[in-house]
Design goal:
By secondary structure, this protein is mainly alpha-helical. It has 10 helices and no strands.
Length: 225
């Protein structure tokens, strides 16, 4: 099948799964912002998105998208390395027209993956997984607000999350317009437009996450009623 065997097909899969993950991040950021205004409202959202059938289906679908995106990213990276052969060792300077993010997508991807594992440990493990398995956790599985407070009261986690968000920003700012290019929506006029749209959108998206991290880190967030 061309989606699996050809370079263009793999890029299409990468682009489709990448855009889907960006949409999920948009939803996740919007949900997190609720915590800035009301801990009770945030916990209501967490309870609604608890261990029920639609949340489980969505979680499995999201996990599948993430795995496919990561696997295809690895396959494309290895394919590009094989195609370049020994030439990649001869390059000593970065071409002026090639973005830093484009040259370091694999490194950024690894940082994003490690950050995702940390995020799953801090939140998904203590919430949905705990509700499904009945394991003992510090707070009620639906008390997402308490887990946000606990996580970002630790300076180490705050720094790690900021690094993670920065890596996601670099990854998405390149990946967004690259996906549009793969879809063939990047003519002479729209190429620069997509780059600007992607930069603005991903910046606002990551700022939404960052504001939540910093608000809880510096004790500016609301408390439960």
């Amino acid at each position: 099948m061309w989606l699996c065997n050809s370079s263009i097909g793999r890029k299409v899969v990468m682009s489709v799964t990448g855009i889907a993950l960006i949409l999920f991040l948009t939803f996740h950021m919007s949900m997190n912002v609720v915590a800035l205004f009301s801990g009770d409202a945030y916990n209501m959202v967490c309870e609604f998105l608890g261990a029920n059938w639609y949340a489980l289906v969505a979680t499995l679908a999201l996990a599948a998208l993430a795995v496919i995106h990561i696997v295809y990213a690895f396959l494309l990276t290895m394919q590009n390395r094989r195609a370049r052969g020994n030439e990649r060792y001869a390059v000593t300077t970065r071409p002026s027209k090639v973005e830093w993010a484009s040259q370091n997508m694999l490194v950024l991807g690894i940082i994003v993956l490690l950050g995702l594992l940390l995020h799953l440990f801090n939140f998904w493990y203590n919430m949905m997984f705990a509700e499904l398995t009945g394991i003992s956790v510090p707070h009620h599985p639906a008390d997402g607000f308490a887990y946000i407070v606990d996580t970002f009261s630790c300076p180490v986690y705050v720094v790690l999350y900021i690094i993670w968000l920065a890596a996601i920003w670099f990854h998405l700012s390149h990946g967004f317009w690259s996906a549009m290019q793969t879809f063939g929506w990047s003519g002479k006029v729209w190429f620069q437009r997509w780059k600007v749209i992607g930069l603005v959108y991903t910046t606002l998206l990551m700022l939404g996450f960052l504001v939540v991290v910093l608000a809880f880190a510096f004790g500016c967030a609301p408390s439960l009623l």
